[in-house]
Amino acid sequence: MDPVSLELPHTLRGPQATAGYGPTTRTTQPIVTGTSVVAFKYKDGIMMAADCLASYGSLARFRNENRLMKVNETTVLGVSGDMGDFQHMKHKLEDVMTHEYDMDDGQALGTKSVYKCLSNIMYGRRTNINPLWNSFIVGGVDGGERVLGYVDLYGTTYMADSLATGFGKHLAVPILRRRVEGRADEITEEEAVAIMDDCMRVLLYRDCRAFNKLRRAKVTAQGVEISEPYSLATNWSYAESIVGYGV
Amino acid sequence: MDLAMQARPMEAPIEAHNHNRWSPYVDNGGTTLAIAGADYVLVASDTRQSDGYLINSRYSPKAFVLSNNAVLGTSGCSADSKRLYEVLEQRAQLYQHRHDRQISTPALAQLLSNTMYSRRMLPYYVFPVLAGIDAKGAGAAYSYDAVGNMQRVTGVCFGSASALIQPFLDNQVRFKNQRDADPNRLLTREEAFKIAVDAFTSATERDIYTGDYLEIFIVDAAGAHKEMRELKHD
After folding, report:
1. Which GO annotations describe the biological process of this protein (chain B) (predicted)?
2. Contact indicator for A56, A32 with CB cutoff of 8 Å
3. Is A11 inside a domain boundary?
4. Whole-angstrom distance, CA of residue B34 vs CA of residue B203
5. In sequence order, which ranges of A142-234 are alpha helices (DSSP H)?
6. What chain A residue is nearest to B22 in terms of C-alpha separation?
7. How confident is the model at residue A238 (pLDDT cuts 50, 70, 90)?
8. How do residues B128-167 score in pLDDT, each as one tens digit?
9. Strand segments (E) across chain A
């Protein structure tokens, strides 16, 4: 009997393996993209938000995407950058979590471990000059400790009480440094929601790739909760008074 | 042989155009210095991590204590620095398990050089200093470039404020251009500590990539211990 031989479709082979069949294929620019993610620590845990838009250049292409992923019972992942690369990472993390489940050892993978795993994947990809074009924020509660970490396509990692990706680095971080830094332990959930909504509103006003349909996630000792999409109240009458920049 | 290399057919075309290539490196700023004395060695690093005009984090340490009490100070690409530390720490622990004793500082220094050179074709974008106690009990500081060139030194500074601090160390630690000084004199701990703090407070005034907090590790026969100082947050 003939041995079974299976030709994998090119999409399932690595870029190196396909070299003989054409040019190597890599993410050299993001195509379908998600914009900022904003996250910070508060009294009960961590809060994170991202809108539901996946843009195709300047086209608002997919308007009902979820950019907040529940990784496990204690961890959420916020994503900006290429949505295709994110789906790849999502499958990888699901594999990791399935493997953990299969171990059946009563041990859950903590937020720090998920963050390290994600960081190692990102650093490995950039070292092979084949990056996943994303910025991720990992948030969760690990053994009673709040964990908030950032990792991007360069494998750069850092942790802080408040974090943002993309435009949020410019527009949300200054707000968060003022309202969160040094007082993460005193912010109630109510205030956290207000701070988060203010950040997302500023982004909505000034980031052309932002969208007024967003989700908010919180991780507390009780677990992960990702909200249904909601909208922010806006007031565009300010626009009338803005002059300059060629207007 | 690497499997990926084997799988690549010989007739595969080699890409001639190399322009517009994505760069895998980022410069996250920050500064590290080391001063070696008779029976101690000191490593000082700021804790700011930046990306261009953005401050990523005010506390992201770039000096790491290894399991044999040597301290690795870094600057350059933060992702590479952290990986370099992990690789070195793993190798130090492997040495412990294989030989049932801690790796010596000179051996670790050579290992760091080899580790850096092993990435000759995609270098760690890191300018490390390694500080520990040598076999004779003297303070030993080693400085490296990104591909593993190594030198034992008494005072060195790398990173975004190195151009501000290194000449200061040349004068105050190595007594360069001091007419009546003994060029071989080694600093006391108190002297070295003050010079490290002064170097960083001054550098913070002029270098936007250096600031927030200063971590100073002092290594002697008893081990490594850490002192923290606040730098300007602007």
Report:
1. proteolysis involved in protein catabolic process
2. yes
3. no
4. 15
5. 167-171, 173-179, 189-206
6. A28
7. confident
8. 999 999 999 999 999 999 999 999 999 999 999 999 999 9
9. 32-34, 37-42, 45-51, 54-56, 59-62, 68-72, 75-82, 134-142, 145-152, 157-159, 162-164, 214-220, 223-226
Task: List all residues of chain B from 119 to 158 with a beta carbon under 8 Å from chain A.
Answer: 122
Q: Is residue A22 in a domain?
A: no
* Averaged confidence pLDDT in chain B: 94
Contacts of B20 in chain A (CB under 8 A): 28
Tell me whether residues A156 and B78 touch, CB distance under 8 A: yes
Residue B4 pLDDT > 60, yes or no?
A: no
Instruction: Please give the ipTM for the structure prediction.
Output: 0.89
Mean pLDDT of A138-165: 98
pLDDT band at A247 (very low <50, low <70, confident <90, very high): low
Claim: this prediction has a pTM higher than 0.80:
yes
Quote the pLDDT of residue A19: 53
Helix (H, G, I), strand (E, B) or coil at A107: coil
Distance, CA of B139 to CA of B220 (rounded, Å): 7
3-class SS of residue A138? strand
Q: What is the pLDDT of residue B5?
A: 47
Of B35, B71, B33, B95, nearest to B224 by C-alpha is B71
How many domains is chain A built from?
1
- A188 given a catalytic annotation: no
| Domains with residue ranges and CATH for chain B | 29-230 (3.60.20.10)
Question: What is the token pair recorded at A231?
Answer: 């909208």
Helix or strand holding residue B56 (H, E): strand B54-57
Predicted confidence at residue B20, as pLDDT, reads 73
Q: What is the C-alpha to C-alpha distance for residues A181 and B213, in angstroms, rounded to an integer?
A: 15
Percent of chain B residues topping a pLDDT of 70:
92
User: pLDDT at position B106, please?
Assistant: 98
Residue with tokens 């076999």: B135
- Exactly one of A11, A27, A33, A165 is catalytic; name it: A27
Question: Number of CB pairs < 8 Å for A and B?
Answer: 63
Given this model, what pLDDT does residue B116 score?
A: 98
CATH code of A195's domain: 3.60.20.10
B75 near B159, Cβ under 8 Å? yes
- Out of A126, A156, A160, the one facing B28 most closely (by C-beta) is A156
Question: Are B8 and A131 a contacting pair at CB < 8 A?
Answer: no
Residue A172 to residues A10, A37, A38, A147, B107: CA-CA distances in angstroms?
41, 9, 7, 19, 47
Do A48 and A68 contact (CB within 8 A), yes or no?
yes
Domain around A49: 30-168+189-222
Domain membership of residue A56 (yes or no) is yes
Q: Do A159 and B78 touch (CB under 8 A)?
A: no
